[in-house]
Design brief:
The structure is a homodimer.
Chain A: H1 6-9, E1 16-20, E2 25-27, E3 35-41, E4 43-49, E5 55-62, E6 66-67, E7 80-83, E8 87-93, H2 94-103, H3 105-128, H4 134-145, E9 151-153, H5 158-164, H6 169-181, E10 185-188, E11 191-194
Helix pairs in contact in A: 2-3, 5-6
The structure holds a DNA duplex.
Chain lengths: ~200, ~200
DNA sequence: CGTCCGCTTGACTCAGATCAAACTTGGTGG
DNA sequence: CCACCAAGTTTGATCTGAGTCAAGCGGACG
């Protein structure tokens, strides 16, 4: 899991702070890009209008992550952002940020590193989604996301994890239970420990 | 589809040129990262060793694309690269590239833009893979990847496209045929045109 | 106290994976 | 020029496992 160190990079930059209640909107698809956001706490659901007129979750930005990275270089947001729980957001003006990068290449380099990690991470999830067996898919995800102690701290609901790896949440619960019964892992609180 | 403009960014930088025959290896998972690669022609298959000891395709880098972006900031390659057809590769020393970025922030900014686009693209594919219906998944992919004329130029085999969107190639062929018979699209040569 | 939502389990169904086989196509080499 | 091979494409038949619907539980929160 790639975690942002953005706050370090941009600590002395002028910023705004927003506190959102669940359901509050941050921006809408098609809006002019003015700000770049960093999630301090809570979670922000990014959705996109689908062809059929529905809404599809494209990403769940958790505490410590940034969102709409690509928007920095585009004029309009290509997705909408809504708080999925009470959230605290730090926002930087897009123009301020780009100007800062002009003058501080080191900050830009950190940003580049951050994005590179994102690319790596997304490709891994993409690969995982090609595993058809639910059990193997779950194991692959845990291997991918766990820390060096073979532990996975779940900073989101199991339902969201299920979505993240492309499984129906019922299937996810079931397979997780089976894996636990087969002594492949232990679950407690917000942790999963691989055996 | 995000296409690289890397050659423009790095045109005057010292580089090496490799010509690979199909099957030739560029680097292996675990190798020390020395160079950063840009595909001029052909295609490079990126694979990763799976837990079970197999090989999983994680990305097919086509002409104009870069590969192993994340490796710029890591010591080892996290995947292996093998030419999937006769390919021409331009390589830059990692150290040269990073030094160039130090002195030319504009180049780094272009790179940042490139990565940001990649992130956007990968999230889109991720979203597409969550669509369960094969037919809808295929349509969503075409919508995503087509140009302004509702045409999609396939620079890879249908089999690879099937893999890219996470379908068994048989299913992909079948649904494509159905869509063609239902006059939703036209297929000819390496093109798909939406109606 | 009621509502919401994540979690859990059961039963059923079917769409897509899988196995199998044939046919194109392109390239290689004798 | 043809024989041959490899790989992509196509179609058929079968089957299974994951999606879906449904229903109940429990904790958080106002």
């Amino acid at each position: 899991m790639i975690r942002s160190h953005l706050s370090k990079i941009l600590s002395h930059l002028k910023s705004e702070r927003f506190c959102l209640a669940k359901g509050d909107s941050l921006f809408h698809q098609g809006d002019q890009v003015v700000r770049f956001y960093h999630v301090r706490s809570g979670k922000i659901k990014l959705t996109r209008n689908t062809i059929e007129g529905g809404q599809a979750l494209i990403y769940m930005a958790l505490a410590g992550e940034t969102l709409a990275e690509a928007s920095l270089f585009f004029d309009q947001y290509h997705c909408s952002a809504v708080a999925d729980s009470e959230s605290e957001i730090v926002a930087y003006k897009k123009s301020t940020l780009l100007a800062h990068f002009e003058q501080h290449p080191a900050a830009m380099k950190e940003m580049l590193k951050l994005f590179a990690g994102q690319v790596r991470d997304l490709r891994a999830i993409n690969e995982i989604k090609n595993i058809h067996s639910a059990k193997e898919r779950i194991l692959a995800f845990i291997y991918h996301a766990m820390n060096e102690h073979k532990e996975l701290h779940l900073d989101m609901s199991l339902k969201d994890v299920a979505y993240k790896i492309g499984l129906a949440h019922e299937t996810f619960y079931r397979e997780l239970k089976k894996l636990e019964q087969a002594r492949r892992l232990i679950r407690k609180d917000g942790y999963i420990k691989l055996l």
